[in-house]
Design brief:
The protein is mainly beta. It has two helices and ten strands, in the order E-E-E-E-E-H-E-E-E-E-H-E. It is globular, with a radius of gyration of 20 Å.
Length: 156
Amino acid sequence: MEGSGKFTFHSQTRYEGEMKDGMFHGNGVLYFTNGSKYEGTWDKGISKEGKYTFSDGLEYQEKDWDFCDGYDRRFYTERCKGLKPAGESQLTDLDPPRVIPDGCYDCGDGFFNPKTRVITDYQGKFLRNADDDEQEWIVRTCRKSWDEIVGRSPDN
């Protein structure tokens, strides 16, 4: 491929931009299935410089990055629109949050089903099988479709 073009990976991530000898070369944009994108300058398939923008519009900054650090744990939408009143939690950057299928986890780029160990995108298309390390991380850190009561029971 030479000149400007489009290439779609099996994962549905899409590149649009300049190419040379079948490689990304020049200016181009990678569009990810979660809505984020990476705009960059490429040299023989290697990104030399670029800018990553999250699906909510937040642009990553390599220097002076003050988002989600140890002092400020607000979501980007909370920084833009303000905090909710006391007692109304915002669980994710999406408000309202995605509805997670029964028995599954929201792992950031799709839903994880622990019975099948399969991760599908938010439209239900297969993304990948989770290995042991990814499954452990998802179960330990990601939002799940059910509530668990922890701590003291009001009946005791």
